[in-house]
Every structure is written in structure tokens, then in C-alpha cells.
Amino acid sequence: MIRYSTVTEKNQREIILLKSSPCIWGKCSFCDYIDDNDSDLKKDISLNKRILKKITGKYKTLEVINSGSCFELPKETLNDIKSVVISKDIKKLFFESHWIYRDKLSEIETFFNIPIIFKCGIETFDNDFRNKILNKGAIFKNPLEVSKYFKSVCLLVGIKGQTKEMIKNDIDYLLKYFEYGCVNIFVENSTNIKRDENLIHWFHKNFSFLEKEKNIEVLWNNTDFGVGGDSYEI
After folding, report:
1. pLDDT at residue 61 tops 60
2. Which residues pair with 202 in a beta bridge?
3. CA pair distance 59, 123, nearest whole angstrom
4. Which position has the higher pLDDT, 118 or 38?
5. If you average pLDDT over every residue of the chain, what do you get?
6. What does R_g of the chain's alpha carbons equal in angstroms?
7. Among residues 196, 187, 194, which one has the least CA distance to residue 220?
8. What is the rounded distance in angstroms from the CA atom of residue 171 to the CA atom of residue 168?
9. Which domain covers residue 69, as residue numbers?
10. For the chain, what is the domain count?
11. Which comes out higher in pLDDT, residue 67 or 15?
12. Among 162, 144, 154, 142, which Cα is nearest to 202's?
């Protein structure tokens, strides 16, 4: 598994994929990413230390991802991240968090004491599709409510059952309410959720302008950030 990379286009940053305890939700119908979870904390901490040694601080920005939320990272790993932030003079962090943790975000902000962009995997603002089909476990009234907690959301595009209207609304909400965003084109995995090639083709044709939005990133493949793919590195 590749666990260190750099994002050199928009929002230049170093990015690392760390190991964590199991996702607090872990029930999303489309996700097998949680297979990277591990309950062996000693093993997780040891691996994470090796990955953190790769950080150079060259962009002064670091994104930390794991197969769940930043709150599931071992406490020792959070301390190790903070040490790297200080030693490498990191000025901004990106972290991921499930909606469940929305009232705890300030704890991470206080701990690191630097600007943090929290990303939340909303997937879609269509409530029925998000919770009944994707089983996301994120219940809220509207995009404005989400924006009170998160500066960035991740959307999922290209799943059988999604509609063009759904996607249009999602992109409108993203641009209207959020400072940052990531649009993930669905790649089939070990789950039963299927990819809609026609919908993806339509999205590419109609929303290619998002590539020019400085704080919106479109991932056509789930390894486009450079982490998560296979590696022979030990």
C-alpha cells in the first residue's frame, strides 16, 4: 500500500495514509476502504511512525487520511503528527471526519493549534440516497447545516441509481456553501454497489469546468492523490 505522496496541482500538500482503529460507523454500503483498519494499536503506531518520517514540510501543508475519521487514529499517532507539524513547520492540516464527530472537531483544532480543514464524506445531499442506499449514517437538514461544521465535503458520483438531477444539486450545493470540495468518481470494488458509466460520461461532459475551480478536486480514480495503490515498499 502506498502511504505517502504529494499533491502538486491544486492546494499543494503532502498526503499520508495512516492506519487506525475501525471506523466508528463502518456500515457504508459502497465502502471496502475500512479493510485497512486494524485493532492492533502497536502495529498501527509503528507503521504510522515510519510514514510520518517521510514528511518534509516542503509545502507547509499536510493532509492526513485513514480508513475512517481522524478521531480513530491512536493517541500516540496524533502526538507524533503534532511533533512533525512543529518540527517541519506545517502551517495547515487537512483531516477527515465522519458526521458523527461533528461536535468534537474543536478538540482536534485545540490540540494542533493551526488551521485545519475538516473533510466530511457526505457523498450526496439527497437524504434518501445517502442514507437508504449508501447507508452513510449522516442525518442533517440541509447543506447549510453541514457547512457550519465542515469547510470541505466529499461527493460520490457515478453510482447506479443516482440521477442527473441529484448530481446537479450536489454540485450546486458544493459551490455555494463550501470553501473546498472533492468529487470522487465511483470505482467498483468488493461491495455490491455498481458503477454507472453513462452517468460518469455525462458528468465529465457537463462538469469538466470543476477542474478549473481552485479548491475543488475531481478524482477520476480513487488513487489519484497518489496514496492507496499497491507498493512493494516495506
Report:
1. yes
2. none
3. 28
4. 118
5. 94
6. 17
7. 187
8. 5
9. 4-219
10. 1
11. 15
12. 162
